[in-house]
Each structure stands twice: as structure tokens, then as C-alpha cells.
Amino acid sequence: MLDLEHARSPFPERRERVGALIELARERVYSTPAILERAKDLESSGFGGRDALHLASAEHARADRFVTSDDRLIAKTRQIELSIKVVSPLELFEEGVI
């Protein structure tokens, strides 16, 4: 799903920057029944379907961080308990990760 969304971005410069971040990923996560079930739980907490699936996949993979430039998504994730840290690209930079 991430690859599809990335490829459909209408902003070439953003697509290039996001592509560089995607290359840092150590593993790819494919949908499983457990991920889909967690995504449904997140949807019931008010997340949209794609966001819920992304978050559930990141949790399943035990990602260190979930990076998004969606400020509303970041704010919403800070209102619930997640097993991952959700950050903006700027926060990632400030942490010294990139």
C-alpha cells in the first residue's frame, strides 16, 4: 500500500524525498489477518482505513517509528495508546535519525 501511495504522489520533489526514506526501511510488511483485525480496531477509534492499515502494519512490524507529515494523524495518534512512536519528518530529523 505504501508503494502505491508513494507512486501516486503528484509532487515529484516529495516523491523523491519520501522514496529516500522508504529505502531506509529494513523490511516490508504484507497484510495478515492480525494486521487487518488491528486496523479494524483503529478504524473504530476514528482512523481512516488507509491510516489504520498503515498504523497496524507498523505496529505488527514493531517499527521504531511511524513517520508522517499528516499533522492531524499525529495529533490523533497521541490521543490513543499505540505500541509505536508516531513522528513527523522534522521530528525524525531533530532526533538525529536522518
Explain the overall architecture:
The chain has 98 residues and is mainly alpha-helical. It has one domain. The chain contains 6 helices and 2 strands. It has a two-stranded parallel ribbon with strand order 1-2. Helix 5 links the parallel strand 1 and strand 2 (85-87). Helix 3 crosses helix 4 (49-60). It is globular and about 35 Å long.
Helix and strand arrangement:
Elements (H helix, E strand, L loop, with lengths): L1 H6 L4 H12 L9 H12 L4 H12 L4 E3 L3 H7 L7 E3 L1 H6 L4
Parallel strand pairs: 1-2
Helix pairs in contact: 3-4
**Share in β-strands:** 5-15%
Given helix and strand content, the structural type is mainly alpha
Spatial strand order of the main sheet? 1-2
Shape, principal axes of CA atoms: globular
Work out the helicity level.
Answer: 55-70%
Radius of gyration computed on alpha carbons: 13 Å
Provide the number of structural domains: 1
Mean pLDDT: 88
- Poorly predicted runs of 5 or more residues: none
Order of secondary-structure elements: HHHHEHEH
End-to-end CA span? 23 Å
Largest sheet: 2 strands, parallel
Total helix count?
A: 6
Beta strand count: 2
